[in-house]
Amino acid sequence: xxxxxxxxxxxxxxGGSLRxxxxxxxxxxxxxxxxxxxxxxxxxxxxxxxxxxxAGSTYYADSVKGRFTISRDNAKNTVxxxxxxxxxxxxxxxxxAADFAVLAVSEVGSWGQGTQVTVSS
Length: 121
Hints:
By secondary structure, the chain is mainly β. Helices cover 0% and strands 52% of the residues.
């Protein structure tokens, strides 16, 4: 299994930026992709972005396209989520994810502990 540790959350005003990081350890050689999910209060966890570990192919939810960028540093076993032009509706706990063949909550094998992102108006 893969262990994931996120960092970089916090409080920011609408229109601002934050960068989340996720460090992977353990059986990282088996990873084919990593991703980010988020869960707002009272809502279901949803996929935000994902990146394939070898080719670097990316996926973004429609709600974040053009504002968020996912990237990875293979040498550091780290994935990043650069979030720009943040909106109040981006407020959520953001979770790093790995060990999945399909980008769906039920398919994720490894989760980070989550990091809070709060966007104020």
